[in-house]
Amino acid sequence: MTESFSGKIKDKLIAAKRKWAEDGRLMTGAPDTERANRLPPGQRLVTDWPVLDLGITPHVSADDYQLEINGQVRKPMTLSFSDLLDLPHVTAKNDIHCVTSWSRYENHWQGVLAKTLAELVDPLPAARHVLFTAHDGYTTNVRIEQFLDDDVLLAHHWEGEPLSEEHGGPLRVVIPKLYFWKSAKWVKKITFARDDKPGFWEERGYHNNADPWTEERYE
């Protein structure tokens, strides 16, 4: 992370959330692995969509947008927003869960499946992890099998409307099975990697795996 980036983000917000990790805030000690209901342990249901970021909202128009996909792949490429719209599209409905304790049911998305992008670039056998870099400097990481799950997509519409800037438009990652900090907003680069590389929050005490059903909030 560059010095200029860290100077721009909300230092108090970051310090507070880092303290959550140190204190184990929101941990209930009662993981529900049976999934008898849709609400993971320690979560509360909301009907709005809270906005959480690092204090920066990048302004990237669809006309200027580019997504770079590189790393351990046979065919690295850079796609424009128009290129992404030309790819096979899906509509999806899922629940999302934020580590700050809110969950929102039945979000409707439109976008491109992660599997579709992977087919384009053809990951090498050495690829074991996927790293995301966003336009605000944010980074996060998942295992390749988490990225290639059937419900993971790169979304450009939410509830029938183009994804707003505050929620990551024009394009964001959506990985509904994990806490939502893994679903990078304003994504500009996807790197298939041999080695794992913890991202922004993972370096600050947050769990590397982030399963909400077993409360993997913090390391």
TrEMBL record:
* Pfam name, any one: Oxidored_molyb
Q: What is the lineage of its organism?
A: Bacteria, Pseudomonadati, Pseudomonadota, Alphaproteobacteria, Rhodospirillales
Q: What is the species of this protein?
A: Thalassospira tepidiphila
The UniProt entry, under InterPro entries, shows: OxRdtase_Mopterin-bd_dom (IPR000572), OxRdtase_Mopterin-bd_sf (IPR036374)
- Residues covered by the Oxidoreductase molybdopterin-binding domain: 57-201
- Extract the PANTHER family matched here: OXIDOREDUCTASE MOLYBDOPTERIN-BINDING DOMAIN-CONTAINING PROTEIN, PROTEIN-METHIONINE-SULFOXIDE REDUCTASE
The parts of the chain that form a coiled coil are none
What name goes with this protein?
DMSO/TMAO reductase YedYZ molybdopterin-dependent catalytic subunit
